[in-house]
């Protein structure tokens, strides 16, 4: 997943797919022009919801040729990391997790041949991730409180995106800025204008009668 933050990338979230037809769903998203497939892993502790684990991520990886973007919303990413790495192109962990060595976990992700991302909840200030910026390929700004799909976009996250983009430019770094939560076409425009370039989209892609058109609208 080479870093080119001038290009808009669309990463449909499996969380919104039809799990009874998951293979067809992710293959359809790829054929429709998706750039990545986004997998939200939830453990019922870090967030108040359960989603899926390494086996489903591995099954999705076998179905697609585009990068798999695994977002670990779990308390101990350092403990479970090795179970997800074989299925991942990118792994994003949360700065608020119980991992006592965030830098060490990011290094492990990169040493495994994946790119490494760091995410922050809406209530977490940008300054918490600032020490890690030079170790990252991606920063994920949650634009809803993580745990459940279908929530409304939080526009108060836009200044955080702008601050991250400004700091990236100031330091001369190269990492993607990803947004996740309530992203439809109007929100996509706002996030892209603020400096994001990777849009995670759930119900605004999966479930639409024309996936290619849905992706085109987000990208444009």
Structural class: alpha/beta
Give the number of helices. Answer: 7
- Compute the number of structural domains: 1
Strand content: 15-25%
SSE string, helix = H, strand = E?
EHEHEHEHEEHEHEH
Q: Quote the average pLDDT.
A: 95
Uncertain parts: none
Classify the helix fraction into a percent range: 25-40%
CATH-scheme architecture:
Alpha-Beta Barrel
Beta strands, count:
8
What does this structure look like?
With 220 residues, the chain is an alpha/beta fold. It has a single domain (9-219), classed as Aldolase class I (TIM Barrel, Alpha-Beta Barrel). It has seven helices and eight strands, in the order E-H-E-H-E-H-E-H-E-E-H-E-H-E-H. It has helices at residues 22-31, 54-63, 77-84, 102-111, 158-171, 185-194, 211-219; strands at 9-12, 37-42, 68-73, 90-94, 115-120, 138-142, 176-180, 198-201. It has an eight-stranded parallel β-sheet with strand order 1-8-7-6-5-4-3-2. Helix 3 (77-84) links the parallel strand 3 and strand 4 (90-94). The protein is globular. 45% of the residues are buried. The mean pLDDT is 95.
